[in-house]
Amino acid sequence: MIDLYTWTTPNGRKVSILLEELGVPYNVHAIDIGKDDQFAPDFLKISPNNKIPAIVDQDNGLSLMESGAIMLYLAQKHGRFLAEGDAYWQMMEWLMWQMGGFGPMLGQAHHFLKFNKGTSDYAEARYGKEAQRLYSVLNTQLNGRDFITGDYTIADMAIFPWAARFEWQEIDLNDFPNVRDWYLRIATRPAVQKGYQIPKFVTDIPMP
Ligand SMILES: N[C@@H](CCC(=O)N[C@@H](CS)C(=O)NCC(=O)O)C(=O)O
């Protein structure tokens, strides 16, 4: 049994979407980062960087932070949603792209374009432009492919919840038709719709 510590954010949703896709039982612990739950001493024992998501696997006592590591662990434990052969490394490449670029840069776009609009023209231009560039890169990768590496893997599940905040990033998905079609393919999956609402309902998945 997995204990999942999470909140209603893209990084948290990556893991709840994967757990729903795997169809394995898990306990949800809501860590309200708006109320500083992430700094509670008990939570810091399993997530010393004071961020969600984190898991504890009750089967072996392992605790993990960092969504990319958690996704790899769960996918390997259950032998699902991992690309095979050469595509395995392509999947890793795009998982790392999400962890090192798509997530952090779009997080900055949310900060300046959505929550602190008008405080810095420079930052708005910088992260707005970077968001456009990242979507363009993703659009190229998805040309001729249903999913990032062909089959549906954890790379898709890691990227999707960040793309689901396209409105905050001032992105029109219709400008990136391969991304839009990929997005709709994922957004309509029942497991994704369920995982998106963990730990609680905030909004339906936005549609382009
Ligand atoms: N690289 C980390 C990033 C996790 C992260 O940034 N989590 C945010 C929510 S999406 C958080 O917990 N923020 C609380 C804080 O910074 O105090 C991962 O992918 O797990």
Automatic annotation (TrEMBL):
It comes from the Bacteria. InterPro entries: Glutathione-S-Trfase_C-like, Glutathione-S-Trfase_C_sf, Glutathione_S-Trfase, Glutathione_S-Trfase_N, GST_C, Thioredoxin-like_sf. Gene3D superfamilies: 1.20.1050.10, Glutaredoxin (3.40.30.10). CDD domains: GST_N_Ure2p_like. Residues 1-82 form the GST N-terminal domain. Residues 84-208 form the GST C-terminal domain. PANTHER family: GLUTATHIONE S-TRANSFERASE GSTA (PTHR44051:SF8), GLUTATHIONE S-TRANSFERASE-RELATED (PTHR44051). This is Glutathione S-transferase N-terminal domain-containing protein. It comes from Marivita cryptomonadis. The lineage of its organism: Bacteria, Pseudomonadati, Pseudomonadota, Alphaproteobacteria, Rhodobacterales.
